[in-house]
Structure formats: C-alpha cells, structure tokens
Specification:
- It is built from nine helices and 17 strands.
- With 399 residues, it is an alpha+beta fold.
- The mean pLDDT is 97.
Length: 399
C-alpha cells in the first residue's frame, strides 16, 4: 500500500521530535531500498530516472520527477515539480529545498553506520550545494522500518517458541543417531532443522547452521551438501537457527545453542561458555536497567556491556564480532545494532524493535562458543526475552 497521509503525519511528528526540517527520500533505479519500501510505489511502475520526495516537518510533501516519468509519484501525497534537463534538475532541487536548514537522508557521517548509507556522495553534495545541511536518517529509518506491529510481535513469539523446541529436538536427533552408530554430519543436522521448520509452518531465506569442533570457531561457517564434517561421540557442537512464519510481513526469531556429544561437558568448554554467558547477561541487564530507569540508550552501549565483561575475563581478543543485530522482516534488520566494534552504532534502542544479544569467544583450531538470545522492547518499554528458557550451561547431550 503506497504512502498515505497518515504515514506522512507520522513522519512529520518524528521529524519534529528529531528537530529536523525535512526528510528527503531520493531514489535512482531502486538504489535506495528504504525509499522504495517507505513510499511503497506500485511494482509495475517503470523507474529509470531519479526522483526526490521531500516530507517537511510542517506543510505538504513535495515531489521532483523526470518528465518521462512524471506520473510515477502521483499515487502518494504532495505537490509535483517536473524536470527534464540536468539544469532543470538542479533548479528544481534548489526550489524544493528552499527555506530548509536540515534534511535527513540515507547517509551516515564517516560511513559509521553503513547499513543505512545508500545515497551516493554526489547526490549528498548537490543537496549541500543548495545550502542545506544533510543529517543521517538512521533513527527515522529505524522508526519506519524496524518497529513491529502487534501482529508481527505475536508471530515472532510463536516462531521463537518453535525454534527453542527445535533446539531440543536437534540435540535428541544427534544423540539418537550417534547412539545407533549411524553416520551423522553437520549437513544432516541442518536438514533435520529445516524439516522441522517445514512441519511448523516457519521458513528461512538462509539455511541454519550446525558447526562441530573447530568449525564452530568460524562465526559464519555453514555446512553444505558437499562441504561438511562428521559428528562423533565427544564432539562439541554449535547450532544457530533462524526462521519466521510463512506469511507476509512476518519477522525473524534467531537463537544459538551449544552442546557436547557426551555424558559430561569438559571443564575448558564450560569455562568459556560461562564467560560468554556472563557477557550476554551483562548486556541484557544493562538494557533492563536502562528501561526500568527510563534512560535512553544506544546500540554501542549494549555492546560495551558485553565486551567489557568478556574483556575483563581475559578473552576480549577472541570476541571478534558485534554483540547483536537488529531483527525484522530480514534476519539482519534495519534498526539499531548492538555494536561498538565493527561500527559505533549510535541509533537509539526504541520500543517495538527487536535485536539479538549474542556474544561469542572463538578459539581458532579448537572451538567457538556463542550464546544468542532475542530481545523485544514492547510498546510499554518492557524488555522481553523470547524463546525461553535461555541457555545456562553447555548441554551434555548424552546426560
């Protein structure tokens, strides 16, 4: 459904809260996915020329479109101006921006948050040449791209419950196969989890992961039909699974668990897990304390809470990725990431958004431990962990 007056009013309210004069949505051949999704134009429309759509904090939206595609934005509110030549484009843009001091665009200073930086540098320059300061739309994007509806939140809770049950079933599947002395591979476990997805009406765009022993020290290892390792008694195993309901606009759930194919867990493995768990729980407690106390927090601060704990335990150099990512209709969503390592994510953690907390310690050539939970901030600012119970110790699969 194309952008309507109600959404325009919501954007304007957000702009006033952010103290930004306008949001300028620019697109060329679909290179700005945020503009495409927010404007939600009919899919049959041919878009081969640049268009600009400006929503001011006050007043009516404004459009700037090319002459041969001048009808493309007619389905959304606003006054239309048409350009044909590059000179008339410059003139039209200057007129559109007249009187504005700041406009938000899909831009990130220093590319600090690359996930939102989809507008090319030349377009940013042309806006600045009109005498307007360009600021990042990162927080606006989050409000209109990452916030869940009540239906999405309810669907997510159901998907998370399924994933948590599949973890137990996957461990039992491993135990049964190994006990029967049948051949078992990472790929077999992956396919078992996918089969469980199908039975439960959930699905994924990328296959879940099963990593054994040293493979688990590679955070993005994925077994395939042709490339995988076998599982045996005594092996350490990590499973990472994510899925969502088979329906439009459903959102993902995403969890990671670890186990050992033995009656007991080796001390060195449990030691590492407890450090990872401490980092996970420190980050979660930081979020809980902030929302209980009415404090505004940013993604980088959540990352710091986990990273400081793991660093003090002496394993900081082995924690080589961010603490968590935004979760939405795609597994890595468009809201704040819990990150002060790969980027310094200064987006606020806001209600109706979800994110993972998943610190990890990866010991090359040995094994890697990650413990992943999902957190949802409710409209009432409750901090909800989905897919409970959380993992408290490494699972001894043959216990």
């Amino acid at each position: 459904m194309a952008l309507n007056q109600n959404t325009v009013r919501e954007i304007q309210s957000a702009l006033r809260e952010e103290k930004i004069d306008a949001w300028l949505l620019y697109n060329f051949r679909g290179n700005n996915p945020f503009a495409s999704r927010i404007l939600d134009l009919p899919s049959h429309i041919m878009q081969t020329r640049r268009y600009y759509y400006l929503v001011p904090a006050e007043g009516d939206p404004r459009k700037l479109v090319h002459g041969i595609e001048q009808w493309n934005l007619d389905v959304i509110p606003g006054e239309k101006a048409v350009y044909v030549s590059w000179r008339s484009l410059e003139e039209g843009l200057a007129t559109m921006l007249k009187g504005l001091r700041t406009v938000a665009m899909e831009y990130s200073p220093g590319n600090a948050i690359p996930y939102v930086a989809t507008v090319d540098a030349g377009t940013i320059e042309s806006v600045r040449e009109a005498g307007v300061e360009v600021v990042s739309s990162a927080n606006l994007v989050q409000r209109f791209e990452a916030c869940w509806s009540d239906e999405q939140a309810a669907d997510n809770m159901e998907s998370a419950k399924h994933l948590r049950e599949i973890v137990d079933r996957a461990f039992y599947f491993m135990k049964k196969k190994i006990a029967a002395k049948e051949t078992l591979t990472e790929y077999d476990v992956q396919q078992f989890m996918l089969d469980e997805f199908g039975k439960r009406g959930i699905w994924t765009e990328a296959d879940p992961n099963c990593s054994v022993n040293a493979n688990s020290a590679n955070p993005h290892y994925e077994p395939t039909k042709d490339v995988h390792s076998s599982l045996h008694r005594g092996d350490f195993v990590l499973i990472d699974l994510w899925a969502k309901k088979k329906k439009g606009r459903s959102v993902y759930a995403d969890i990671t668990w670890t186990g050992v194919l033995a009656e007991t867990v080796p001390d060195d493995v449990e030691k590492i897990f407890q450090v990872v768990k401490g980092g996970r729980d420190s980050a979660l407690q930081f979020v809980r304390d902030a929302f209980t106390g009415g404090r505004e927090i940013q993604g980088w601060q959540v990352d710091d809470a986990a990273r400081q704990y793991i660093g003090k335990a002496g394993y900081g150099e082995y924690f080589i990725h961010r603490t968590g990512h935004s979760i939405g209709e795609v597994i890595h969503g468009n809201g704040a990431n819990m990150d002060n390592l790969e980027t310094r994510d200064e987006r606020r953690v806001i209600p109706r958004t979800s994110f993972s907390i998943e610190p990890g310690i990866y010991l090359p050539g040995k094994f890697g431990v990650r413990s992943e939970i999902d957190v949802y901030i409710s409209p009432k600012k409750e901090v909800i962990v989905t897919g409970l119970p959380m993992q408290e110790k490494v699972v001894a699969i043959f216990a």
